[in-house]
Specification:
The protein has 356 residues and is of the alpha+beta class. The protein is built from nine helices and 15 strands. The protein folds into three domains: 119 residues, eRF1 domain 1 (Translation, Eukaryotic Peptide Chain Release Factor Subunit 1, Chain A); 130 residues, Nucleotidyltransferase, domain 5 (2-Layer Sandwich), CATH 3.30.420; 84 residues, 60s Ribosomal Protein L30, Chain: A, CATH 3.30.1330. It has a five-stranded mixed sheet with strand order 7-6-5-8-9, sandwiched between helices. Strands 3-2-1-4 form a four-stranded antiparallel sheet, with helices on both faces. α2 packs antiparallel against α3, α4 crosses α9 and α8 packs parallel to α9. It is globular and about 75 Å long.
Length: 356
């Protein structure tokens, strides 16, 4: 399940009690040892809080989940933050490539997703397809990290099993090309099956010729959103993710730039909102289409009503930009965080509404 879908599911779940644990983590040893200690401390704190507030007989499954999640999490696989969601009926954890603002435990009647909203809005999940006639690998990636290699639906493919056996026909280039297309058609079928389940776009690393063959047989060519030439001298997982992430960052920059241009063009149509109060009401009502936020901008608030708030200077209070971003994302809008100063001509946070 993609991270967005998982967070949407958690946001809609109601269980009393629901435990949310957020903590900053490290990617390398020996700092991961600190993560192990902090995780144990936070799980112990979660257990104490629920035992203080609830009868043990009503929370036995939750207590078991607190114990079990501590055994399941491998700190060696940590990224920059870890978010754990536990109830009598659920046990989930999400690793993200952005830090969270505090290590904490929250117990309530629903999961607290505020800690993951801003991080999630900056996360890009995608597949990297390393394509060659000698074998094909598919990797799932999050920003600058490979999270797993796919081992299902025929992945990884071994070398092309189709070749010309008739010696008289081996010199026929058209027949040789047909054998390559047949192989890549099978690869494409597996990629599309996984795409339909996960919804993640695909970057392709291959020779120009192999990418051309893939495009010729692709049943959904639009899912292959970018291509980079393969370097067989640098084909480790580290090199692959570096190459894939650089390509994806370039795609992101182009998408952000286009979004800024479109936003400026929408001003004359009366669809652009820059006032935070008006913006929040619009997104809660489902009108948020495209939201652009400058990386440096945040605004803590104190809620004074269901759709109203007042600005405060306390950085520990909820950031209204995160709430606005979540409302847009959860209603199938698009959110861009950018350090491109062109957006500041309109303001540090700008919303394009679906309608007036």
């Amino acid at each position: 399940m993609a991270t967005k879908d998982k967070i949407l599911q958690l946001a809609n779940e109601r269980n009393n009690p629901s435990v949310t644990i957020s903590m900053n983590t490290h990617r390398v040893h020996p700092d991961t040892t600190k993560d192990s200690i902090q995780l144990k401390n936070l799980l112990a704190e979660a257990e104490k809080q629920v035992l203080d507030k609830y009868e043990r007989s009503t929370i036995e499954p939750l207590l078991a989940n607190i114990v079990n999640v501590g055994k399941e999490i491998d700190v060696r696989l940590n990224l920059d933050s870890l978010h754990i969601f536990l109830s009598n009926n659920n046990k989930e954890y999400i690793r993200l490539t952005w830090p969270t603002y505090a290590d904490r435990v929250i117990v309530g009647d629903k999961f607290d997703i505020r800690s993951v909203i801003k991080s999630f809005s900056r996360v890009e999940e995608y597949f990297i397809l390393v394509l060659s006639q000698g074998g094909v690998h598919l990797y799932e990636a999050m920003n600058d990290t490979i999270t797993q290699e796919i081992h299902r639906d025929n992945f990884p493919f071994t070398e092309n099993p189709y070749y010309v056996t008739n010696l008289d026909l081996k010199s026929d280039p058209d027949l040789q090309d047909d054998m390559i297309r047949k192989f890549f058609r099978e690869v494409d079928q597996s990629v599309v099956k996984i795409f339909n389940e996960e919804g993640l776009n695909v970057l392709v690393i291959s020779t120009a010729a192999n990418y051309s063959f893939l495009q010729q047989v692709a049943s959904k060519p639009e899912i292959y959103v970018g291509h980079s030439l393969i370097n067989y001298n640098n084909a480790s997982e580290h090199d692959i993710i570096r190459q894939g992430w650089e390509l994806f960052k370039d795609i992101q920059f182009k998408n952000r730039t286009k979004a800024i241009v479109d936003m400026n063009e929408s001003v004359s149509e009366g669809l652009v909102i820059t006032d935070l109060q008006e913006m929040y009401r619009a997104v809660v009502g489902g009108r948020g289409d495209v939201l652009i936020i400058h990386e440096d901008f945040s605004q803590p608030v104190k809620m004074t009503g269901e759709k109203t708030f007042e600005f405060v200077d306390d950085p520990t209070m909820p950031d209204i930009t995160s709430a606005i971003a979540w409302e847009v994302l959860s209603k199938n809008g698009r959110v861009f965080f950018t350090n491109q100063d062109e957006i500041k001509e309109l303001g540090p946070i700008v919303l394009k509404a679906r309608y007036k």
